[in-house]
Design a protein that fits this description.
Distance between the termini of chain A: 31 Å
Distance between the termini of chain B: 85 Å
Radius of gyration of chain B: 22 Å
Strand order of the largest sheet of chain A: 1-4-19-14-16-17-18
Number of helices of chain B: 11
Shape of chain A: globular
Oligomer: heterodimer
Strand order of the largest sheet of chain B: 1-7-6-2-5-3-4
Strand content of chain B: 5-15%
Number of strands of chain B: 7
């Protein structure tokens, strides 16, 4: 271990005093070192990476043969003449993308090997991307490996889910709440669906894998909406998440419709930037940086300052995390997911006492929707107010009416291929209103049913027309909860367009926050990534 | 000129005394220790990286597959590959990944490569060859290989015992399996596709061709498995890799589980029909041999 200790150390809360060093803030494709006010600030540090499994392939095989819940072992579910569909998580997981071999490749190869042994001929592999953008050939190859790709893609048996294919989707019924359960027709008609998941955060997995991943706008609109988001506290905490409750209801409809799902869930450790190497400094605690770490960091800082933003993006996008598999479990969806969630919590949960007036966070270069792409302002909002704000269990880290300060360059820049509907959302919708409920009511349908966006989603590599709306709704709970949002170092016009306040420095932002929370506010910094989830009591 | 006298010249064996047996320096008696000294290793490194790699890149343009299957492997291993050509060894020396690449010895036929001292020295220096008897598992070569594996060296061996005479494989001999059991190390099956066209048996000049090197899942000998059974398993694994290289991974797995992987040794038919049946099994070559424009 890099820390020289026998076991990885858990996450903890540092009370900042005068002797505390400046804290590393991620800042898009860059970093800032910020000195936080003494005696009223605390910094939440993530846990060190847990040890990975020594024999991942052995563990995967064992999980397939010894399933959880009321499921039979996978070999007993496979037989000659059956229809098998293997669905897997898309490019949004894990973050950053992991080094080869990707976990999905390991699991899919193990599943296919058993299917080959059983003589199964009719096999389809589907990237369960719901209304995300399609994965490119290189991205699919990275996820499933060249062997699987070369065996299935040329014959059209490995492909991206198409939620707008009128012949490829089916509504299997309604939940008692009147929610349509829309599902991939191929998966619905299969004798068995094996879902291969990477559970990076507690929000992922469970029935959400299939009920969302293999669904379309008709189904998603029932839980990807403002009402659900406002009633998910947080959406990272399944027990208190309306988002999950809806997905679980849909899971029951799938079960009742005789869709047999064999869920394979995996968890990874916090080894996002490596225990050694140039990026390892990003997962070390500042006072443990060696002279080499400090020199490397300064060189990286200076180098990044000299690079144009496109080059910086390229450098950061090329980083592949050396994640290690910490657990794999398979079988019946709910039984599997219970164990998976416990394993996610084991790595990420950090106990925190009490809320704060001001929450600070440094947003990194990547979120689930800009892999190999541009982090546009809407995604900045989604990452900060959606994902990071919701990384809590119990109650939010910041009190109601408090201030959220996040650092990110927030460029007024969009990837024209990946995010075409985002451009119009930003120019047209946000210019009209930033209120999620009003946006939903007035604009969503128009974008979701736009034929051009549908065409780009189906044939190009574009997110669906409804996707930027969901990103905005993702932050609805935070918007309702917070008194003010300040973005440090962002493009002033872009920040203002979203209804937030721009600030040049953290000190300015802290000064501005006193208007809302009063002088000498308590401050908490969420030092993320590597990922942590605050267990706030 | 006056003849030199003893001790400046050797004295003849006195009459009535049995002459000592001649000391052999060839075949399995060839001493290759010097070829694993630091200077020799540096020279070999320069040769492999400076000469073999660019040459292989030029004449073989190798596509390397399955390296991810080795990512959890640690310590010395035995690489067992099919054998079509003299290009196989340099191809393997340049495609075997680190940390094995530069701590690798090659099992070479004692009766071929080590027939003369000059030839043996060149083989030992250039490719790190050690003499192996190909007709049987000889005590001397087995001990040498065992000692080297014990010292952390990995071994590249061609279990067919020689290059293919007609493009099809030959039955695997038990040497690699025996050593794996004796040293308790894993064997990595490797399939080489396309090298037969570069420098097959009987050819003097290489002909450029595209090649594919497929590394398979490491195999561990079972607890009660004898070398004959393990060699058969190894051959089946290489046959499955050959199937993978010529069809795809999924079809290869289906056939491997059904026990219907195409035999490495080819069909048991007349010679010309065997050559005919060889056909063009290389997908990479097929893809690029397009003589007509696509309209």
């Amino acid at each position: 271990m890099s820390n020289g200790h026998l076991a990885p150390r858990p996450g903890f809360v540092l009370d900042v005093d005068r002797s505390s060093p400046p804290v590393l803030f991620h800042h898009g494709e860059g970093f800032r070192l910020e000195k936080l006010p003494a005696d009223r600030t605390r910094v939440i540090y993530p846990a060190e990476p847990l040890e990975g499994l020594a024999d991942p392939d052995g563990a995967i095989r064992s999980a397939l043969l010894n399933p959880l819940g009321d499921s039979e072992p996978l070999p007993a579910l496979l037989h000659s003449g059956m229809k098998l569909t293997i669905a897997f998580d898309d490019i949004s997981l894990p973050l950053p993308p992991m080094r080869r071999p990707d976990i999905r490749q390991r699991v899919i190869e193990a599943v296919l090997d058993l299917a080959a042994e059983a003589g199964v001929d009719d096999v389809h592999l589907i990237a369960a991307l719901a209304i995300h953008r399609r994965m490119t050939e290189n991205e699919l190859r990275h996820a499933v490996g060249d062997r699987v790709y070369d065996a299935f893609a040329p014959s059209g048996r490995l492909y991206n889910h198409d939620a707008e294919d009128p012949d490829g989707m089916v509504v299997l019924g309604q939940t008692p709440h009147g929610e349509d359960v829309q599902f991939s027709k191929r998966a619905a008609e299969s004798d068995l669906v094996v879902y291969v998941n990477i559970n990076l955060v507690a929000m992922d997995g469970g029935h959400k894998s299939t009920a969302t991943g293999l669904s379309g706008y008709t189904g998603l609109r029932h839980h990807h909406n403002v009402h659900t988001m406002l009633n998910s506290r947080s959406f990272m905490d399944q027990e208190n998440s309306a988002l999950h409750a809806s997905n679980w209801r849909m899971g029951k409809v799938l079960r009742d419709a005789d869709v047999k799902i064999f869920q394979v869930e995996t968890t990874v450790n916090n080894n996002t930037f490596g225990r050694e190497g140039p990026m390892s400094v990003l997962q070390k605690r500042e006072w443990e940086w060696s002279p080499k770490d400090r020199a490397g960091f300064l060189a990286m800082q200076q180098g990044l300052k000299l690079m144009p933003s496109a080059a910086k993006r390229k450098v950061f996008s090329s980083w592949l995390a050396p994640y290690e598999l910490t657990s794999v479990q398979a079988g019946e969806v709910e039984a599997v997911h219970e164990v998976t969630t416990a394993n996610v919590y084991k790595q990420q949960l950090v106990p925190v006492e009490g809320q704060t007036d001001v929450l600070t966070m440094g947003l990194p270069y990547i979120c689930p929707y800009n892999v190999n792409s541009i982090m546009n302002p809407i995604l900045v909002m989604c990452l900060g107010l959606g994902y990071f704000f919701n990384l809590y269990r119990g109650k939010p880290l910041v009190r109601e009416g408090g201030v959220l300060i996040m650092g990110h360059p927030t460029p007024w820049e969009f990837h024209p291929v990946h995010h075409p509907s985002y451009i119009d959302f930003f120019e047209q919708v946000l210019a009209d209103t930033t209120d999620p409920a009003e946006i939903e009511k007035k604009w969503e349908k128009q974008f979701a049913e736009d034929e051009w966006y549908k065409h780009l989603y189906r044939t190009s590599y574009a997110y669906h027309g409804a996707h930027p709306f969901y990103m905005w709704y993702w932050g609805a709970h935070a918007l309702q909860h917070l008194g003010r949002v300040i973005i440090v170092g962002g493009d002033t016009a872009a920040v203002r367009r979203m209804g937030f306040q721009p600030a040049s420095t953290l000190q300015d932002a802290l000064e501005m926050s006193t208007d809302v929370v009063g002088p000498q506010p308590t401050i908490t910094h969420l030092k993320n990534p590597p990922i942590l989830m605050a267990d706030v009591t | 000129m006056a003849r030199l006298s003893f001790p400046l010249r050797a004295t003849p064996v006195p009459n009535g005394v049995e002459p000592p047996p001649p000391v052999r320096h060839t075949g399995t008696d060839f001493d290759t220790d010097w070829a694993r000294s630091q200077p020799a290793r540096v020279a070999r490194l320069a040769l492999v990286e400076g000469v073999m790699r660019p040459v292989m890149s030029l004449v073989a343009s190798p596509a390397v597959k399955g390296l991810d299957r080795l990512d959890r492997l640690d310590g010395p291993v035995i690489f067992a590959a099919n054998h079509h050509s003299h290009a196989d060894t340099p191809l393997m020396l340049t495609t075997v990944p680190e940390p094995w690449r530069h701590r690798l010895v090659v099992g070479a036929a004692a009766d071929y490569f080590f027939r003369t001292r000059i030839g043996g020295s060149i083989a030992a220096l250039a490719i790190g060859a050690i003499p192996i008897e190909r007709t049987k598992v000889g005590r001397q070569s087995a001990s040498l290989a065992t000692d080297l594996i014990g010292d952390g060296w990995s071994l590249l061996i061609f279990p067919e015992g020689g290059r293919s005479p007609d493009g099809w494989g030959q039955p695997f001999r038990g040497g690699a399996a025996y050593l794996a059991i004796r040293c308790n190390v894993p064997v990595v099956p490797v399939h080489l596709q396309g090298t037969g066209r570069i420098l097959r048996k009987g050819k003097k000049l290489p002909q450029p061709s595209r090649t594919t090197v497929t590394f398979g899942d490491p195999l561990q000998p079972g607890e009660d498995e004898n070398s004959r059974a393990f060699a058969a398993r190894l051959e089946a694994a290489v046959a499955a890799l050959a199937d993978e290289a010529t069809s795809d991974w999924w079809q290869a797995r289906v056939r491997a589980h059904a026990g219907t992987s195409p035999d490495l040794t080819g069909p048991d038919i007349g010679a010309w029909r065997r050559v005919w049946a060889l056909g063009d099994r290389d997908r990479r070559a097929k893809r690029n041999r397009r003589h007509w424009p696509e309209l």
